[in-house]
Design the sequence.
């Protein structure tokens, strides 16, 4: 499995003062060779940072995750996944791949990543708590939103089920160290999976954080890792600086940013990758947005955003780099019956399949962007399954950390968000309690 | 009903070379007075362009929409709303306000705004077509995606129901003129509501395009218009150039853009306004993104995006203008029981309500952005209902057309998207038909 990113639509485009030359991208990508070698050594050693690179080759942690998924599947019609940001977006993306609505063998998953009381209460009202499971995910074990959700739901479940049965319905994923969530898990002897200490939330999709939801949905967790491993092999190997590589993607983004291209649009023509766009948006923004650097990740979706954003993309400011992902869907999906559309103006649709239209629109938009001089990278997928999605995750994680290398920023921290958390507690402290 | 936008967090911020002065915003806003007077005359005359300004005062078109909603509600458990872009996003936003899951009196709405065959077939498979309604929305009557969806579903319904009963389940909203969709409606004598000729898709939310879905969901359509009318009264009146006005919002956006602030982030702390962000994103992008002008609308959602985008917002490039919307939720929602969180590290949560946490986070983020010199406009809502949402729609539509006035672009056209449509048909033409 390999992902054939095509950069030719960027190399023909004028960016700022002149065309971006293939040689510039390749030279910049080759400057990453020492970094790639470092990552390759890390992987061979099987330990060290960034630990997310070791996940594709790991299998031992899947067994306890499978056991937990099996137990929750047996007991539950619905499972709530509590968690926010990196504790949720990877799982959501994987779940989108599942063939929902799932058969009776698999529970419905609900990703609760926000704390709006309106929706929360409505959901709680309609759940049958006797057949509801809960998985609380927090790396630090102290995320305010997740702990708030957890406390409210646990209280409701104690009332509905009795405290002694809590451990049959509620589990946590958190780091193996003392924390508020770990203490609560201890108190009720809840099943617990370890959040890897060396894997940050936005790099955790291939850990049990992403894979437990995938297992709950009946997906093949090992296949995600196999796809990621295949991309990793190639990215760190002799082809690691070629044009389709993550290194070249990072080089392209940084060269474009230097020329004023401050936004990076990821536009899949695949509904199942809509959440992938949200996952990518966190990854890119939080890893690179520091010291005044980074570019803004934009999540788009085709064809629907042709009716919303394409006008701006084509005729607005020249500040966006595009990545379009197309899945081969020609000949797939329901067919437009000629007897329904027997109008000359609809002749172009007669006998076509919905996948033909989707495919044609994806091709046409890529070509239109390129014709209009917009730097556009394209990726064509022959299929979309666990292996391919695992590969996509790995490609974009590598691209992001390599872009951080080129920008000279630390891809793994997020120093700015602490101030707001402290302030929020200050505001809470002055509110009335009931 | 009035919306109290607070611009003080922008006026203290350094934008580019120096602070943005209140006087600069006011002078720019006052330059819009002739435009406001023109709009006011239009409204008094009760005819002319842009026609969307006349919708808040209109009532006669609601009666046929109510009749259609009543008939579909009687017959259907599910209603599919076919349409894309402006034919869908307004309705989706209104529907988010409904108290879903709705009681048995109201059908579930499904907004099909994309043509991915995978999800489409799965939805079709699980619908009971005997109790499913369809509303196809296309201003031109020729939108390829909508016609493709329509043809597939109509064929399935003819098979399930018999052709003679189609008119009891399927309706269209399109312009009162000849078009492929109009011809199909004619062929089966389908109920039909007129899409106003002078109202573009992205300005159509207060027309039957947005209000039919609202009526299907049991919402008060007239109240949306009343809220919009109240905002319009104020925006075109003597207070029309004050700091809280749409004119001042437009002036702020344009002044910020001149200083390199190329992105406009709309970040409500209200899940029910998540779709509002998508609606706004089309409105702003498609109306302003032309001749190299416009800024990029960014849809964010609090608090969840604090765990995704806030790092970039605070420490990335200084290129974003922020609008935060907070709903007063202190004291609302489920309460965190002190006996559950009897850990000193969670003392800050004990006895708090979820709405307290949401409120504290919204306040803290606004303050953190402002302290860090990020230009941040805030809006506090005391409640969220039809009237307030109608007002929000009107505020942002006015702000957009007034920004277009300042930028010297036509807010109502989208000339760039035609090229891709033609190309897509070319691609279709060379594909095999079955």
Sequence:
């Amino acid at each position: 499995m390999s992902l054939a990113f095509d950069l030719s639509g960027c190399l023909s485009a004028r960016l700022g003062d002149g065309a971006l030359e293939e040689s510039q991208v390749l030279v910049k990508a080759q400057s990453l060779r020492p970094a790639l070698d470092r990552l390759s050594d890390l992987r061979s050693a099987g330990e060290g940072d960034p630990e997310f690179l070791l996940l594709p080759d790991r299998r031992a942690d899947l067994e306890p995750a499978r056991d937990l998924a099996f137990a929750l599947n047996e007991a539950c019609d619905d499972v709530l996944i509590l968690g926010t940001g990196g504790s949720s977006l990877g799982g959501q993306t994987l779940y989108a791949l599942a063939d929902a609505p799932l058969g009776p063998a698999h529970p419905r998953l609900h990703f609760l990543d926000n704390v709006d009381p309106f929706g929360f209460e409505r959901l709680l009202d309609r759940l049958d708590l006797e057949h509801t499971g809960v998985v609380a995910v927090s790396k630090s074990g102290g995320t305010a939103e997740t702990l708030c959700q957890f406390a409210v739901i646990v209280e409701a479940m104690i009332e509905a089920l009795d405290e002694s049965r809590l451990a049959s319905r509620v589990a946590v994923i958190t780091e193996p160290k003392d924390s508020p969530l770990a203490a609560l898990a201890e108190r009720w002897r809840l099943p617990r999976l370890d959040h890897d200490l060396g894997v940050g939330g936005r790099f955790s999709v291939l850990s049990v954080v992403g894979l437990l939801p995938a297992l709950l949905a009946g997906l093949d967790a090992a296949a995600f890792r196999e796809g990621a491993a295949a991309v990793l092999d190639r990215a760190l190997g002799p082809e690691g600086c070629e044009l389709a590589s993550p290194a070249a993607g990072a080089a392209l983004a940084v060269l474009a940013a230097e020329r004023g291209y401050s936004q990076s649009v990821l536009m899949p023509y695949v509904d199942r990758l809509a959440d992938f766009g949200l996952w990518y948006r966190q990854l890119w923004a939080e890893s690179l947005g520091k010291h005044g650097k980074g570019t803004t990740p934009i999540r788009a979706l085709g064809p629907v955003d042709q009716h919303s954003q394409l006008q701006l993309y084509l005729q607005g400011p020249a500040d966006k780099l595009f990545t379009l992902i197309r899945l081969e869907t020609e000949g797939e999906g329901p067919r437009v019956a000629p007897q329904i559309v027997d109008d000359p103006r609809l002749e172009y649709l007669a006998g076509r399949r919905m996948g033909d239209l989707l495919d044609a629109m994806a091709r046409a938009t890529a070509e239109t962007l390129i014709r209009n001089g917009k730097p556009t990278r394209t990726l064509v997928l022959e299929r979309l399954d666990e292996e391919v999605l695992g590969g996509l995750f790995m490609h974009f994680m590598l691209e992001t950390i390599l872009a951080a290398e080129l920008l000279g920023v630390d891809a793994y921290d997020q120093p700015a968000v602490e101030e707001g958390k402290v302030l929020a507690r200050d505001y809470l402290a002055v509110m009335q309690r009931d």
In short: Residues 5-39+224-415 of chain A form a domain with the Rossmann fold fold (CATH 3.40.50.10490). Chain A has 16 helices and twelve strands. The two ends of chain A are 57 Å apart (CA to CA).
